[in-house]
Amino acid sequence: MSEAANPDVSVLSLEPVRARKPDWLRVRAPTSVGFAETRALMRRLKLNTVCEEAACPNIGECWSQKHATVMILGETCTRACAFCNVKTGMPGPVDLLEPMHVAEAAGALGLEHIVITSVDRDDLPDGGAGQFVKVINELRKHAPNTTIEILTPDFRNKAKRAVEMIVDAGPDVYNHNLETVPRLYPTIRPGARYYHSLRLLDQVKALSSQVFTKSGLMVGLGETPLELHQVFDDMRSAGVDFLTCGQYLQPTPRHAKVIEFVPPATFAAYAAVARSKGFLQVAASPLTRSSYHAGKDFAEMKAKRVAALG
Q: Which of 110, 143, 179, 271 is the 20 to 30 A CA-CA neighbour of 33?
């Protein structure tokens, strides 16, 4: 059996990791006043968060600082990805008050930057794109100084207009995660298609060169360094500005196994390779997630673009 804490474990190993998490992946249980206040606000406004639904390890840190990633369109997903802790099933009706509640939450939390994501809604004609537009419009009206980052599903089998209408609404950052390397899609992300997701990112940049594009990857699922480097190249070919890369953690025994706990030094190496390929911003560490430190990273990325333009 592989030793999880051993940084020399081969990325090619097919033996699932069953040892305890290494020290670099351990976080404190959330106990702060800020955490309790953020949770109370989400409950009052009947808002879901990916922080809770996806069992994010950073929830204690982020919520204590009153940073939360809102998950719109309900808490039930129509997909069943092998890595995701969000429940699968037939979702309920779209909440018509949700856009106003998101804007109210942004104001109550005093957010300079907000991240909005959603479950997959294959049951809706537009995949839920219209709800993203309504949320963006409400935020622009009631929280005009808050920058907006959206993390959308792939809108697979939906009209091209789904992506166009969101870009037209003018988010500051459009994020769509590739999640893993193409070889692992059939087992890790069976309802999605790698090249469809890549084309979505390319489409966003083609529609608006001003919108920053972002995508994320999980490691520790059995991918190889060369496969990751190829994905970096694919992202850059699609014009992606910002790469996030973090350790996959198995939410429950029924989810995909962790093949390797990737040590921090390897993340640093991946970040160096990614920066050499031209990303404006790279966040790579064991605890990195799509929306982790998103506001700070957005400000840095924006400054880099301004500097690059002279």
A: 143
Reported pTM: 0.86
18 located within any domain: no
Q: Is 77 annotated as a binding residue?
A: yes
**81 marked as binding residue:** yes
Q: Is 245 annotated to bind ligand?
A: no
Helix (H, G, I), strand (E, B) or coil at 133: helix
Positive/negative CA dihedral, 181, 283, 129, 105: positive
Structural domain contains residue 2: no
Q: Which domain holds residue 194?
A: 23-308
Tell me how far apart the alpha carbons of residues 262 and 247 are, in angstroms, rounded to a whole number: 7
Q: What are phi and psi of 192, to 5 degrees?
A: -115, 170
**pLDDT tens figures, 67-85:** 668 889 999 999 999 988 8
- Is residue 173 situated within a structural domain? yes
